[in-house]
Amino acid sequence: MANSIKEQQEILEKLSIYALNPMQEEALDVITKNANTILLSPTGTGKTLAFLLPIIAKLDPECAEVQALIIVPSRELAIQIEQVIRNMGSGYKANAIYGGRAISKDKIELKHTPTILIGTPGRLADHFEQGRFTTEDIKTLVIDEFDISIEVGSGGEMKTIMSYIPNISKRILTSATQGTSIPSYLKMDKAITLNWLKDKASSKLTVKTILSLSKNKHNTLVDLLNHLGSSDPGIVFCNKKESIEDLSLFLEKKKIAHTCFYAGMEQRDRDRALIKLRNGSVSVLIASDLASRGIDIPEMKFIIHYEIPDTFEQYTHRNGRTARVDAKGTAYLIKGDKEIFPEFIENSKVEILSNNGDRKPQFWTTLFISGGRKDKISKGDIAGLFFKQGEVTKDQLGTIELKQDCAFVAVPASIADALVGKLTNTRLKNKNVRIFII
């Protein structure tokens, strides 16, 4: 277990990380030495690893109950942290539980009690009230993105959870923004605050304003996306579900490959949207502020504020999706005719779109495979199927994402239909799998 510097280094090597950044080093030291810590650091700087390393080092390998609780505001963040813990290979079991899926799945996973439990406030409160596991051994509490987690659990769920975990000796709160008041029931007395947000001032973020000739910004967005091209990924932020759906229909007519992401979508569709963005099947994600943090996507080269957010915090989190760590990125503000921006929007350079560009179709598309880890299928098995029976070359096999009961493979769009014809209903390990384009 991760109780020594040597074992910590082994974990980092499994994650292909060979040195912690300065924020992570300070957080590791402060969290280890103090009972209550507040960690403020921009999106994409590695806060998850910063709190997981000291948590794992503190766990008791002889205890068979839940020892650490991580509260998160969204399903995607719960899943992401669960995957990071698994990739760390510490030997401790972790499970994510969240709304939007059958509670029976939670019950099955909780029969084998995890050492680290990750979950959203509502689902956690439900399990606590039903007494589905012992909470007496939970000594460490993390509230990730605490400003949003507290808001999500403001209906009483957070207070309910706190009432079931009286033996907490270490509390860690994280966020990418500051200024949120911390409720007294969290008992963050004498907390040490690590504020790395000041570093965001030196980030390589460029902000540009694009003027629209009308209140309706649809055509201006299309011009901007064509200008940017299809090779670099980016997010178009809207404020409402209705705006996302309307914009999606318009982009579909303009033949701009994209996908959507917002709270009202089925979890399956949200997962697939992110998979297609990660593997390059689409380069545009039209999203609500749900996509501004806590989701597993690559570095975005740009973000577009199609609709201006209501608060400075939302604006900051959206911008945090690009220009992360040492990378460069651009945030575009589309300004409608006679539109007045809020005071928190800084003055930025107005860019004239002189060349709309020739937007190329996406090279990759995504195939669904109806078999996963529970069928003893590995990424190597999938690659072998595509190389041998699909007769694809190494350059024609893109990203493979393996899930518990299915898998997703990126392949060139030009050969996708032919591959489906060749490979669907073929045997993979001990299962005949269906394969189709999503």
| Number of separate structural domains | 3
Q: Radius of gyration over alpha carbons? A: 23 Å
Largest sheet: 7 strands, parallel
SS strand fraction: 15-25%
Q: Summarize model confidence as the mean pLDDT.
A: 91
Structural class, by secondary structure, is: alpha/beta
Helix content range of the residues, please? 25-40%
CATH topology of the largest domain: Rossmann fold
Number of helices: 14
Low-confidence sequence ranges:
none
Second-tier CATH architecture of the largest domain: 3-Layer(aba) Sandwich
Tell me the distance between the termini: 41 Å
CATH superfamily of the largest domain: P-loop containing nucleotide triphosphate hydrolases
| Spatial order of strands in the largest sheet | 3-4-2-5-6-1-7
Number of strands: 20
Shape: globular
So what's the CATH class of the largest domain? Alpha Beta
SSE layout and pairing:
Elements: H1 5-14, H2 22-33, E1 36-40, H3 47-58, E2 68-71, H4 75-88, E3 94-97, H5 103-110, E4 116-119, H6 121-130, E5 140-143, H7 146-152, H8 157-163, E6 170-175, E7 192-195, E8 204-211, H9 218-228, E9 234-237, H10 241-253, E10 259-261, H11 267-278, E11 284-287, E12 302-305, H12 312-319, E13 328-335, E14 349-350, E15 364-369, H13 379-388, E16 400-402, E17 407-412, H14 416-423, E18 426-428, E19 431-433, E20 435-437
Parallel strand pairs: 1-6, 1-7, 2-4, 2-5, 3-4, 5-6, 8-13, 8-14, 9-11, 9-12, 10-11, 12-13
Antiparallel strand pairs: 15-17, 15-20, 16-17, 18-19
